[in-house]
Structure formats: C-alpha cells, structure tokens
Amino acid sequence: AVAYVTGTLDDCACDVETIDRFNNKEIFPKLQKLLSSDYFRFYKVNLNNPCPFWTDHSQCGLKYCAVKPCTLGEVPEGLKSSSYKYSEAASQDIEECEKAEKLGAVNGSLSDETRQALQEWKKHDDESDRFCMLDDEDSPKSQYVDLLLNPERFTGYKGPEAWRIWNSIYEENCFKPYSVKRPLNPLASNSGLCVEKRAFFRLISGLHASINIHLSARYLLDENWFEMKWGHNVSEFQLRFDKELTEGEGPKRLRNLYFLYLIELRALAKILPYFERPAFHLYTGQHTQDNENKKLLLELLHVAKSFPLHFDETALFAGNNKEAMKLKEDFKLTFKNISRIMDCVECFKCRLWGKLQTQGLGSALKILFSERQIDAMPNTSNTNPSFQLSRQEIVSLRGRLKTSKSIKIIRFFSYSIHKTL
Ligand code: FAD
User: TM segments (predicted)?
Assistant: First the structure.
C-alpha cells in the first residue's frame, strides 16, 4: 500500500504501524459496538449558544448542515430522568431523593448513604479540573441529538467562514508563533516551543485532520431528485494529505492524528479504575442493556490498558513547580477557549461534531492529568467526590471513535490509491 505515514512518532516511543495493528484489530471493533448503544447514541447539546467572539455571524443555509434533534418520545426514559447525571448505583435512590426534594418532603425513607451521595454530588465542582467548556444540560435550549441519525460527513462548509474558525484556533489559540508572512513549523525543535505547546498544536492539528478525513470518506459523490450517494472520495483525500499536493504538510497532519490517538488511548487506560467501581453504571434505565454496556466498556478499557507503547504524560508539565503549574493553567484556558470557538461554527452539523470532539479531547486531558484524584477514589463507597465525569463527558468518548475510525480510513485510502497506481 502507499504508506502515507510510517515510523516512530515525535516525542513518543511509539510507531505508526503498531498503532494501526492495535487499533484496527483490538480497539475499533469494540468501540464501535459500545458506542452504538443508547447511552452513547443520545447526546445532549446546546447548538444555540451565541458566538462569544464575533457578532457578524452569518446564517448557514447549507442543507447538509442541518441537524435533526430528537423528539422527547425518542429518548429513553432513563436518560431524561435527572438520575442520568450521577451514573452511579445509587442513581435510582437519588432520583427518588430529588423527587422528594421537589415535593418539599422530608423523606425519612432514604438511606444516609444516598442522601450523602446526592449532597456530595451537588457540592462537587470540578470546573477547575476541566479543559473544556460544557453546555448546561438543564438549559431549555439544550436538546438531545441522535448521533447515529446525524453522522459527521461532507457538508460543503468551507471558504472564509470555515477559515475564520481554523485561523482563530491556530493563530490566536494554539501557542503558535505564527504569522501569515513568516510561517513557522511548530514541530521543528528550533521553533522555540516547549514540548507541552508542541503537544497542544499537534492535538488540534490531529483533530482537524480527523474532521477532514471524515468528510473525504463520507463525501457527497452524487445527488439527484431521488437519492444522494455518499462514499469515499480518494482525490479529496489526496488533495488534503498527499505529500506533493500539500508541500509536505499532509503526512505531518496525519502523524498528528496518530499523536491524538495515543493521548486518547492513554486516557482510556487511565480511567479504568473509575468505571470499574461496582457503583458505576451506564444508566439508561434498561437494566440488562446497562449491565451489558458496562461489561463491554470494561473489556475495552482493559484492552486499552494492555497497549505496550503508551504515551508517557509525566513528560508534560514535569517538575510540579510554579512554572509547570502556570503552563498547565495556560494549556487549560487555551483549550477552553477553543471549545468556546465551536459556538461560532455556522454549520450546525459541523458545530455538533466539533463540540463533541473538543469535549472528547477535553475529557481525555482531564483524565490524563487527574491521576492523583483517580487514585484517591474510594473502592467500596458509592460516592466519589475526588473525581467525577458527567454524562456529557462520558458520551464525548464518542470523539475517540472518530479518531479510531480515522486511523482505519487512512488504511482504506492507502489501499485504494495503491490499486489505482
Ligand atoms: P481547511 O481544512 O479549512 O484548513 C484551513 C488551513 O488550515 C489550510 O489551508 C491549512 O493551511 C491548514 N490546515 C489544514 N489542515 C490542517 C491540519 N490538520 N493541521 C494543521 N493545519 C491544517 N466540513 C465538512 O464537510 N464536514 C464537517 O463535518 C466539518 N466539520 C467542521 C468542523 C469545524 C469545527 C470546522 C472549523 C470546519 C469543519 N468543516 C467540515 C470544514 C472543513 O474542516 C474545511 O474547513 C473545509 O472543507 C475547507 O477546507 P480547506 O481545504 O479550505 O482547508
């Protein structure tokens, strides 16, 4: 096959070929099965947040940018109840507790443990641990979207609007010593960027590559009155990633995608103790399905943990000194800003998936840098104030499927191009 990317990745002890084998055989099939379940399929999102950065916002009229939200009848009952937020064994009790609270009842029938679980959940504010802005799920503007019915694919969103988003991400929010007149390669070791800032740029570039791979793989190939034909567009992929056609940039962008994958894989491995607690449930109210999903999730996380060449995140923000802490804070703030830029994306379909993917990466970073809190989790108790993931953060795991699928798609394009040579 035409090898678009090969060899060892920068700043890691891992090579592209090992990732390909591991992903395509071990991770991708398990992720795909798990993420088509109801728990991961319905995503609550506010697509109507105003853009916080500019006001000359045009309305997107492209028909492929439309998103169809769910009617309430389409969403499983368990997800609509407030207990979904807790995802814990006590969730049913908590639901009762909340009902009782709403009714103003002093409910003596609730166990102390349940009452404490609810209080600790309410008290817990992990805003400071976050790398990403989350939508307020209780806002009346937030709606459920069925992700299987609104797939990420070619939408036709391009030109100055799309460029303004990417520009504002790279030039103002990516630690990039970049100027249009004098572009610098942020990956060059003489670029003046420290390893953390280089990593940041690579993650964003990897995310961008993933979006562009997906639109090339689910391209609108033909359309008439009766049907639309979606499929792989090899020349679109080549235009974006071929070495010759992109002045050498395409393969570097694909390598950044592999780097993103490594970070996400590491986060999957590290979150295992959180999901392994007996108290944790992927709660939808359909108990057999919920148990099956938890089993699948744990299988996936165990496999992720077995990967032999994990990224070593201790190389980032090392030293625990003032400088490292300041850098970590900047990293967080900058990433939060990027998640807010997603509210400026005019195309709703692109906004939906852009939000989900930045949230997914934000959750991965939160996990990666919360080792102390995850280790401090009690094993036996239902409560866990030291570390929490909201349902929105858990569902954004779906972003990981995107990266995993993108890796698979690169192979597909490589073979297709090889066959035509
Ligand atoms: P762009 O992809 O717009 O890139 C702009 C410039 O950034 C390029 O010229 C290049 O210099 C640089 N660049 C490109 N790729 C990388 C990279 N990986 N790393 C570093 N620099 C890079 N379109 C769809 O059809 N479907 C979608 O679902 C979709 N989702 C989107 C989500 C978001 C958040 C955004 C901002 C855009 C989305 N788009 C989507 C649009 C799509 O990403 C492109 O912007 C569009 O196809 C125009 O492509 P382009 O060739 O002009 O270059």
Answer: none
Residue in the structure block whose two tokens are 């992990």: 126
Say what the ipTM of the complex is.
0.99
Q: Which residue has the tokens 């805003």?
A: 127
Beta-strand ranges (E) seen in 99-175 are: 143-146
Question: What pTM was estimated for this model as a whole?
Answer: 0.88
**What is the percent of the chain where pLDDT is above 90?**
50
| Protein residue with its CA nearest to atom 48 in ligand 1 | 158
User: Cα(290)–Cα(270) distance, rounded to whole angstroms?
Assistant: 22
**Token code pair at residue 132:** 């990403």
Catalytic center residues: 347, 350
Hey, is 150 helix, strand or coil?
A: coil
Ligand 1 contacts CB of residue 343 (under 6 A) = no
Rounded alpha-carbon distances, angstroms, from residue 11 to 43, 196, 261, 334, 362? 34, 10, 14, 21, 21
User: In whole numbers, what is the pLDDT of the chain averaged over residues?
Assistant: 83
Cβ–ligand 1 distance for 186 under 6 Å, the answer no
Listed in sequence order, the residues at least 6 apart from 56 whose beta carbon sits closer than 8 Å to its beta carbon are none
**CA-based diameter of the chain, in Å?**
75
Nearest to 45 by CA among 148, 150, 147, 135: 135
Burial class (CB in 10 A: 0-12, 13-18, 19+), 100: middle
pLDDT digit string, tens, across residues 225-241: 888 999 999 999 999 99
If you take atom 2 of ligand 1, which residue's CA is the nearest one?
212
Q: Is the dihedral of CA 402, 403, 407, 413 positive or negative?
A: positive
CB atoms within 10 A of CB 232: 15
E-assigned strands of 193-282? 219-223, 228-231
